[in-house]
Amino acid sequence: MLPRWPANCHDRATAVKSKIIAAPAGAAGRFLPPPGCARDNGSDDERVVTPLSSGTAAALHGRLRAPGDKSVSHRALILASLAVGRTRITGLLEGEDVLCTAAAMGALGAGVARDAGGWTIDGVGLGGLAEPEEILDFGNSGTGARLVMGAVASHAITAFFTGDASLRRRPMARIAEPLQRMGARIVARDGRRLPLAVIGAASPLPITYRLPVASAQVKSAVLLAGLNAPGETTVVEPQPTRDHSERMLRHFGAALSVSDGPEGRRITLTGQPELKAADIAVPGDPSSAAFPAVAALIVPGSQVVIEGVGVNPLRTGLFDTLKDMGAELSFANERVAGGEPVADLAVRSGGLSGVEVPAERAPRMIDEFPILAVAAAFARGRTVMHGLSELRVKESDRLSAIAHGLAACGVKVAVADDTLTVDGLGAPPPGGADIATRLDHRIAMAFLVLGLAARRPVRIDDGATIATSFPGFVEAMNGLGAAIAPAAP
Q1: Beta bridge partners of 304
Q2: In the beta sheet, which residues pair with residue 256?
């Protein structure tokens, strides 16, 4: 019998790291996934809830390195598994989301190994994924689940997907629809939600697919499915979204073209390439760097440097917006690592002013709106953020969670359709609220940051989910001078 999956989020990540091993010689890359990726080895009811509180902090000072980019980490594991040969990955985010993707790729046949210096992936080549013996459990990770669904869809295997309570509420129809056009079968409960089965196509079809809404996850799932289909698979997106998949596909040797036209951005992939192993250095995640960056802006007297941050132009919408608000923020030591632009981010505290954020910028900062809303609460004047419909289907209804949390902290806020309006105080908000994080790591971190500069401490009901994207967040922030501590249940 497999050992029980630890209920605590932090213990889960530790368990995955300790269980992932290289496949033995002669095993053709077969891999038994860590026990934590089988939902029947534990239940969501067994989660250990970790309330946290943040209070007024002294000035923040120092340097830190953001954890590895979550988006790049998922894609690195998946594409390395589909390549021929051995890929070495350094800087991989070792949060629960990514570790569950590592476990899934092992269950699908890749050899996955971790040592003190990084990760080694022995790929099975396109068409080489094996039918997993276990249910693939993606925890809280919509990115991992959706991208692996794409990879499986063009292999003649059946795989079962599940996740935690939050992920099982999130819609998968937007992924299922194009994958079914390519010949896969998706068997799911009402609403196309997890748990579900993907029955891959024996003869996958290339398609041209126009995204109904800008979504890097849907785009990437279709491109991953198109890898094992003959001919050309094309995705047309109405607005450019993060292009980590396109960059990494080229890094592994795929032929891919990108062009802009009146209908949007057109990405065309030539199917059935021979992907070749290629080492990857994962940059720091700009979405994670956003939290210490905004903390440094709103806590008086602060000066912080965040090293090795990915500055892909399709991920820097938050930094552009903060500069528009008057933030003293700059990039230094700009370079390229693993095909991605990287820089050190220097931030100094100072006054902010409200701005209008256009809808077309939303895809470049979709994960950063919770922390932008916190910055807006401290700014002078009104900040209006447009084009936020995608926040309704994240780990929680983030739009609702942001609005309720800010209101509880004494900030005037309004939601109308996909627009969020925050009337900044130009001074620290009252704070003093108990925030329901709704199992959402970014909501948890955003309101802990708010508490560092509010007039009264802010308490969140559960910080355990933070480990999905920023392991060691509390320790890193307190190392700069923050005051984040356990709170009474």
Answers
A1: 62, 347
A2: 269
- C-alpha R_g of the chain: 22
The whole-number pLDDT of residue 30 equals 37
Rounded Cα distance between 245 and 221, Å, is 9
What's the mean pLDDT in 401-428?
97
Topology of the domain covering 52-66+283-486: UDP-n-acetylglucosamine1-carboxyvinyl-transferase; Chain (3.65.10)
Summarised one tens digit per residue, pLDDT across range 25-59 is 333 333 334 434 444 433 454 568 899 999 999 99
Nearest to 442 by CA among 284, 217, 289, 213: 289
Active-site residue list: 367
User: According to CATH, where is 3.65.10.10 located in the chain?
Assistant: 9-47+70-280, 52-66+283-486
Strands, DSSP E only, in 61-152?
61-65, 84-90, 111-115, 118-124, 136-137
Helices (H), 303-368: 317-324
How far apart, in whole angstroms, are the C-alpha atoms of residue 330 and residue 319? 9
CATH number of 9-47+70-280: 3.65.10.10
Looking at this protein, which amino acid is placed at residue 3?
P
Tokens of 40: 């029947």
Q: What is the pLDDT of residue 26?
A: 34
Q: Distance (Å, rounded) from C-alpha 448 to C-alpha 438? A: 14
Q: How far is CA 180 from the centre of its chain?
A: 25
| Mean pLDDT over the full length of the chain | 90
Whether the predicted pLDDT of 6 surpasses 60: no
Q: What angle do CA 161, 167, 172 make, to 5 degrees?
A: 65
Q: Show the CA angle centred on residue 416, arms to residues 412 and 422, nearest 5°.
A: 25
pLDDT value at position 189?
87
pTM, two decimal places: 0.86
